[in-house]
From TrEMBL, chain A:
Membrane topology according to the record: Multi-pass membrane protein
Name of the protein in its database record: ABC transporter permease
UniProt main location, coarse: membrane
Alphabetical keyword list: Cell membrane, Membrane, Transmembrane, Transmembrane helix, Transport
Species of provenance: Paracoccus gahaiensis
Automatic annotation (TrEMBL), chain B:
Membrane topology category: Multi-pass membrane protein
Keywords: Cell membrane, Membrane, Transmembrane, Transmembrane helix, Transport
Lineage: Bacteria, Pseudomonadati, Pseudomonadota, Alphaproteobacteria, Rhodobacterales
Domain ABC transmembrane type-1: 74-280
Annotated Gene3D superfamilies: MetI-like (1.10.3720.10)
The organism's place on the tree of life at top rank: Bacteria
Family per record: Belongs to the binding-protein-dependent transport system permease family. CysTW subfamily.
Protein's UniProt name: ABC transporter permease
Pfam families from the UniProt entry: BPD_transp_1
From TrEMBL, chain C:
InterPro entries reported in the protein's UniProt record: AAA+_ATPase, ABC_SmlMolc_Importer, ABC_transporter-like_ATP-bd, ABC_transporter-like_CS, Mo/tungstate-bd_C_term_dom, P-loop_NTPase, Transp-assoc_OB_typ2
Top-level taxon of origin: Bacteria
A GO molecular-function annotation: transmembrane transporter activity
The keyword Transmembrane belongs to this UniProt entry's keyword annotation: no
Pfam families, A to Z: ABC_tran, TOBE_2
Residue stretches making up the ABC transporter domain: 5-235
A single GO cellular-component term on record: ATP-binding cassette (ABC) transporter complex
The protein's name: ABC transporter ATP-binding protein
A biological process from GO: quaternary ammonium group transport
Keyword annotations: ATP-binding, Nucleotide-binding, Transport
Organism: Paracoccus gahaiensis
PROSITE patterns in UniProt: ABC_TRANSPORTER_1, ABC_TRANSPORTER_2
Signal peptide: none
Length: 262, 293, 354
């Protein structure tokens, strides 16, 4: 059993290294926000300061780009949740062969590189006289985020007992009422989760957005541009706040989910 | 469609079908068709559009084949993306196995949360983190010099930096499908193999990996596709000598001003990715339905 | 208010499969009517055609003398209880029961009052605010019934609603269903593959096989006078001995079998000179009887409590099943021995084959 315990120790060591690998970059990036150095780094440590947070706070361009991202994310959610849900419902009502084809087309945006989605959207709308901007960003992002929503709603639908719909119809409910009172409440958790995922996907998107942004500067573009044109730890301060917000959000979501499951 | 109408009534099903058509026709099919149209036509000034030179040809695609720098970058992007997928697999496999077969329920919950948290964070920020770590006078070089592994700082920016950032960025896309696949393997099968005297590596090559084949293929496909289509990592961490195919495409659109050639290059990238997906799935006999869990 | 249900020559074809062919019967208003058959016999299809979830490809469904063609499930005076019960898991018990009333636009206080009445009827007073997932199997069952009764249906359709319950509860629910039906006077059409369930509860039973109606009769008549070989074998246990009918006279038929000449009541299709089979119930076989004697090799005797079942093989090779009341257990033959049995002609029936 000696070989067994060596393996076990190696596995534990590897797990430790892996977690370090996952978090060290984030910790270093966050820590650099407190370093007085003009370039974001942790070595050498030139003194602890909060000045980069106030610099970030005072950066009007940052606020504009944050606002742009939020606006886009809201518009994306408004589009993707209904369309993704409709797609899942249409798909489950198709016959086997048509379903296979429709399914392939519906997941194809997930297998298409993000830059290609941005490019093809840009080209189509140029033909129609519309240039890059918020409208195209929303449209291009929605193209593949709808696929995620569709998959999440499908997963939930597969656990739906269709006889509930029949029972409701048999009790005299109209089809609208069956949808509103029976199916929608059942889908609610999936709709909320996919809405949350859509917000994250939208705010974090870069590859697709880059091509259709026109003169807009959403948050990711703002950060990427900073890296090239003059990175200061103010960006790290922003990153740290985003990270903390995401981590708290993720933990809260997880706790809520477990409490519900229990 | 009859089934849909029967289930939701004419009003709702019309709304559903309209929404789906709006998505599939207007947002998925039409843009791609227009991109193909662009890719097959020459770049002409507005007054020459529709004129005698405005004909369909493969010239834009052949241009890629004939231009040595672009061709080299194209092939480099392919093998580098495959390398990213391979390294990501090596990093993820032990973790996926441990999560699926060894971890207790409590460990699993904590580990999953730890693994997922970094992936809720923006890809641009994750790349930025590596930008800081790998900086010439950054923490990694200092650390390596302090422990005496190197004498002078190393310039990580370039292929090495891109690889590091991409592996880091796509871990989850490799880990989750493999975890799901190994999780469905009965513990008794591993115990049976051990009981029959198989050494650890053989248990993995003969029992676990064949069982997890579909999950591994899915992970490869996704990682490859994301790497080949990535723009952030090469843009932020690359060097002039490590250009990525997506950067060439970007230049055609926003610096070279030849959208037709850009569309042709994008089309080549799309076809490459779809081909890799379909061929891989065919090879391991996995259905598209099983890919998107 | 309860309705009669009439099926006039209905048939159903799914693609190339014929699920139901030419079924005709009439259920009287207020009757407890069961449709009995093995799985895949078409009984659920019939129920779904009555409910309006599917339209028959031939024939007509009349409920309360009205033709139901083209009417959806929401427009028919029926309510259905599903095998899975299909309670709405995200609604309280009260909202479940009141769902049909909500669909009819009844105001909230009225709905509430009526749901509480029904909760009292099913003896679940005070459970209205629970979620359906918090109830036991029997309670869920009763909620499903109350939900269906809330809309005051003329006909209640039940699709094997007891199949998920354990034996004890199932027997208890049988009695409760029967009592509920008598109390409300609603027409019940009950689907089951469990013959003892059908025989115990129903006023009349329809037996189906392979999409064809075999017989419609009272439970007693079904057991004593099966109309077809299928019914004879499917309803209750039986000893079947084939042969050739040699004489039919005064309601009795004589049949020549490998075990000799036997006499029973003449049933459907019994004609002299035709091949036929005599069906004898296990409880009709008496050890050592002198009339219609049969000899058999005894393989085992299973003691089941109130009776013992004797298994073996007749000399012609057919399986033997004879039940002996425990009070006469001393007369049961020993395993491994040979024994002879007799039966009264009135306790056996001869049917023509085919």
């Amino acid at each position: 059993m000696r070989a067994e315990s060596i393996l076990r120790a190696m596995m534990a060591l590897y797990l430790g290294v892996f977690v370090l690998y996952l978090f060290a970059p984030l910790v270093i990036m966050g820590a650099a926000a407190f370093n007085e150095s003009r370039f974001p780094t942790v070595i050498p440590w030139q003194g602890t300061t909060l000045e980069w947070f106030s610099a970030m706070w005072a950066d009007a361009a940052m606020w504009r780009s944050l606002w742009t991202s939020v606006l886009i994310a809201v518009a994306v959610v408004v589009i993707v949740v209904p369309v993704g849900t409709a797609a899942a419902l249409v798909l489950t009502s198709l016959h086997a062969r048509a379903r296979g084809v429709a399914y392939a087309v519906m997941v194809s945006p997930l297998l298409t590189p993000g830059v290609v989605i941005g490019i093809s959207t840009l080209i189509l709308w140029r033909q129609l006289g519309v240039g890059g901007g918020i409208f195209l960003i929303v449209l291009a992002q929605s193209t593949f985020i709808i696929s995620y929503v569709m998959l999440m709603v499908m997963a939930r639908l597969q656990r739906f007992d269709r006889t509930q719909e029949e029972a409701a119809l048999g009790l005299g409910a109209s089809r609208m009422m069956v949808f509103r009172r029976v199916l929608l409440p059942f889908l609610r958790p999936a709709l909320l989760a996919s809405g949350g995922l859509a917000v994250l996907q939208s705010i974090e998107n870069y590859n697709t957005t880059l091509f259709v942004r026109g003169f807009e500067t959403p948050l990711t573009v703002f950060i990427a541009t900073k890296v090239r044109t003059g990175l200061t730890p103010a960006v790290n301060a922003l990153a740290l706040i985003i990270i903390l917000a995401t981590v708290i959000g993720a933990i809260a979501y997880e706790i809520a989910r477990r409490r519900k499951a229990a | 469609m009859g089934e849909l109408k029967n289930r939701f009534g004419p009003g709702l099903s019309t709304i559903f079908v309209t929404l789906v058509i709006f998505w599939l026709a207007g947002m998925v099919l039409a843009p791609n068709l227009m991109m193909i149209d662009y890719a097959l036509r020459p770049n002409l000034p507005p007054q020459a559009l529709g004129g005698p030179e405005d004909t369909y040809s493969l010239a834009n695609i052949l241009y890629l084949a004939g231009e040595p720098t672009h061709r080299a970058i194209f092939f480099k992007t392919i093998w580098a993306s495959a390398l990213v997928a391979g390294v990501t697999f090596l990093v993820c496999y032990p973790i996926a196995f441990w999560l699926a077969q060894r971890a207790t329920t409590g460990q699993l919950a904590v580990a999953m949360l730890l693994i997922i948290i970094p992936f809720f964070i923006n890809e641009v920020l994750r790349t930025l983190a590596w930008f800081i770590i790998l900086a010439y006078r950054g923490p990694l070089n200092s650390a390596l010099m302090n422990i005496g592994l190197i004498d002078a700082p190393i310039r990580w920016q370039g292929d090495g930096g891109v690889l590091a950032a991409m592996v880091y960025a796509y871990i989850l896309f490799m880990l989750l499908p493999i975890y799901n696949a190994i999780e469905s393997l009965e513990k008794a099968q591993i115990e049976a193999a051990r009981d029959l005297g198989a050494p650890t590596w053989r248990i993995h090559t003969r029992v676990v990996i064949p069982h997890a084949k579909a999950g591994i293929a899915t992970g490869f496909v996704f990682t490859f596709m994301l790497a080949a289509g990535s723009y952030v990592a090469p843009a932020l961490l690359g060097s002039p000598g490590s250009r990525w195919f997506t950067e060439i495409i970007y230049n055609w659109f926003f610096e070279g001003g030849d959208w037709n050639r850009g569309a042709a290059y994008a089309l080549v990238l799309l076809v490459l990715c779809l081909a890799v997906v379909l061929v891989t799935l065919k090879l391991v006999r996995v259905n598209l339905t099983d890919v998107a869990k | 208010m309860s309705h009669s249900v009439e099926l006039a020559g209905i048939g159903m074809t799914f693609g190339t499969t014929r699920a139901v062919s030419d079924v005709t019967f009439k259920v009287a208003a207020g009757e407890f009517f069961s449709i009995l058959g093995p799985s895949g016999c078409g009984k659920t299809t019939i129920l779904r055609m009555i409910a309006g979830f599917i339209e028959p490809t031939e024939g007509r469904v009349l409920i309360g003398e009205r033709d139901m063609a083209g009417l959806g499930p929401d427009q028919r005076p029926t309510a259905m209880i599903f095998q899975s019960l299909a309670l709405f898991p995200l609604m309280s018990v009260r909202d479940n029961i009141a769902f049909g009333l909500e669909a009819r636009g009844m105001s909230r206080p009225e709905r509430r009052a009526k749901a509480d009445d029904l909760l009292r009827l099913i003896a679940l007073e005070g459970y209205g605010d629970r979620m359906s997932g918090e109830l036991s199997g029997g309670q869920r069952q009763r909620v499903a019934i109350a939900r269906a009764l809330a809309v005051e249906p003329g006909v209640l359709l039940l699709d094997e609603p007891l199949s998920a319950l354990d034996l004890k509860l199932r027997q208890h629910m049988r009695a409760e269903l029967r009592a509920l039906q008598k109390r409300t006077g609603v027409t019940f059409i009950y689907i089951t593959h469990d013959q003892s369930e059908a025989l115990a509860m129903s006023d009349r039973v329809a037996v189906m096989s392979d999409g064809l109606l075999q017989q419609v009769a009272s439970p007693r008549a079904l057991y004593d006078n099966p109309a077809t070989p299928f019914v004879a074998r499917f309803v209750g246990e039986t000893n079947a001995i084939p042969g050739r009918i040699i004489q039919v006279q005064d309601g009795h038929a004589r049949i020549d079998t490998a075990l000799g000449s036997l006499t029973g009541r003449a049933g459907h299709g019994a004609q002299a000179g035709q091949p036929g089979t005599i069906y004898i119930r296990p409880e009709a076989l008496m050890p050592g009887g002198t009339e219609n004697t049969l000899t058999a090799g005894i393989e085992r005797v299973d003691f089941e409590g109130s009776f013992a079942l004797v298994h073996g093989r007749f000399d012609g090779g057919e399986a033997l099943a004879a039940s002996i009341p425990s009070t006469r257990l001393a007369e049961a033959p020993e395993p491994g021995s040979r024994a002879s049995f007799g039966f009264a002609p009135g306790h056996a029936v001869v049917l023509g084959d085919g």
